[in-house]
Amino acid sequence: xxxxxxxxxxxxxxxxxxLGRAGDGLTTAENLRLAAxxxxxxxxxxxxxxxxxxxxxxxxxxxPVVHSQAAxxxxxxxxxxxxxxxxxxxxxxxxxxxxxxxxxxGLSATAVAEHAVGLLDALLPRLEGWTVAPVxxxxxxxxxxxxxxxxxxxARMVLVLIGERPGMSAPDSLGAYLTWEPRxxxxxxxxxxxxxxxxxxxxxxxxxxxxxxxxxxxxxxRQLSGVELKDTGAALPSAAG
Amino acid sequence: xxxxxxxxxxxYSFADLRELLAKATPLRSGDVLAGVAAASAAxxxxxQTVLADLPLSHFLDEAVVPYEDDDVTRLIMxxxxxxxxxxxxxxxxxxxxxxxxxxxxxxxxxxxxxxGLTPEMVAAVSKLMRVGDLVAVARKTRVVTGLRTTIxxxxxxxxxxxxxxxxxxxxxxxxxxxxxxxxxxxxxVVGINPATDRPSTVRALLDLIDDARLRLAAPxxxxxxxxxxxxxxxxxxxxxxxxxxxxxxxTQAANRGFGVTLDQLVEAHQAALALDRGTVGSNVTYFETGxxxxxxxxxxxxxxxxxxxxxAYAVCRRFDPLIVxxxxxxxxxxxxxxxxxxxxAGLEDHLCGKLLGVPMGVDVCYTNHAEADSxxxxxxxxxxxAAGCGFVITVPGGDDIMLNYxxxxxxxxxxxxxxxxxxxxxxxxxxxxxxxxxxxxxRVPQLVPEPIRALMG
Lengths: 241, 457
Prior knowledge:
The structure holds two protein chains of two kinds. Chain A is α/β, with parallel strands linked by helices. In chain A, 35% of the residues lie in helices and 19% in strands. Chain A has eight helices and eight strands. In chain B, 45% of the residues lie in helices and 11% in strands. Chain B is an alpha/beta fold.
């Protein structure tokens, strides 16, 4: 039997158990640790996406940068409906593509800056023979903005890589949402999602790309997406919608 | 019926009760999102002015959601107690506010009045109240319930211990359970949000808590917050179900969104009552609610979110709950944008529930994309403590690693109990003392009593 009874228990959870107390409250050190975790999550929500850096990292795969109808972060947070609609000044060239890819800031620009291009590097080579539209970078964007973008581009499927709502212990989690035949009015149950892409703590790029490529291939073959495609991938975190 | 008034040289009109209530509501993002909020600060006060002159009896004549279309409206109207309503039936909404603040409205009068009030009446009067009023009236409104502990007594503040884990890992959950017990938490309920609704997992979690309860001989009740149909299935299999849980909302359509009907709740309530697992009472249901849930299900009928929230308490009231809590900051900034909106909503919900006779608690919480932080949760906790709130939710370090939001820490509650002179539920307080976790000054010392050490493996 271990001399410290907390040893086994702590190993089984990331919960903040056994914190140091000062009287009834938390010690200075514990308070600062909590403040630091919250600060990282807050900064992930409020830092603007460096679109130039994303475009540069995408290289020749890069397409235009677009904006939703949400003017700024405050409006984006209060009006999810505006984050789902494309700004009228967006210019997207119509074509005929199997796939549109949208890199969207969502609720964590940190996640997008750190993981979006790495995931695409792992995913796109797995989609042999697919015609892929130039990758669109979208600001103040919700998942459903991808529907309108895909319609404008003339794509049969859309993949949206988006920053997920940051948790205290995970400020940089990327989500990938795929939708077959995207159009305005698609609902969450018609999409599939792979979330928690954030190596090294969450899914690695290769692991996420493997799951996504399989889902996308099956989606294309059966010409559908959402709950009917795969039960386990269908549950969407509501805040990302 | 429609109303109009003028203020500052402008005239304002309100087509029906639904519009009047929505425009009288203090600003919150969810009503703006729904397109029902007042267009200006002046229009809001104009609506409040009209609302203040509206007779309370009008609420029995005009429903905000049609009676024919909605079983929550039918529940409200069909169970209204006209005799209990008599002391206030001749008052306007503004006059009702004054009466609630009066010395005449004491705990006895308020308890007797509860069956005579409808959710829309209490929502309306709360819209005319400031934070100080919301606290003062709630403080003298007592709703006392019990199962193995007694919740809602004066001078007490209980806690739900919420030992969630992202994979429902038994050792991980035990870690958080033990940490909470060592901080004197868990007197309202030990309640787990499971990561999965799989009945075998839910059963294992129920057994885990019940086993700990029996080994510690502690007066606690357990709950695994799964869908009512899963709980019903487990009840039939003989699982140790203390409390039937369900999330509920203020319209039939929103409850349909939760996949629940009033008939299912009746059935589960009866099944849990039949187990007769209580020692000091027989309240066997637990509900969670929250402003914005109807809008997020597109089931709001253009009614403001605070009025709909009060209607959810009419659903709760029907099933004699042990505890009910609003999950006030969980839903996100598109419904409650910042700490100011969350503070007010938490106090409104707490008061409205208690006026209707519902044993209210609050999950004092926020998400990372809301304009809020731990200063805001401290402020809400302190005001709720002053308002005589039944219970609050606590998680290790205030960081829920399963639901990814921040609630209160065990230490937050220890601190506010000391600051305001509040104590745990009496049965639990006695148990804490018996294992050495409560000193003569009502403080929780830092030690690990042997029975709890044994749980740690």
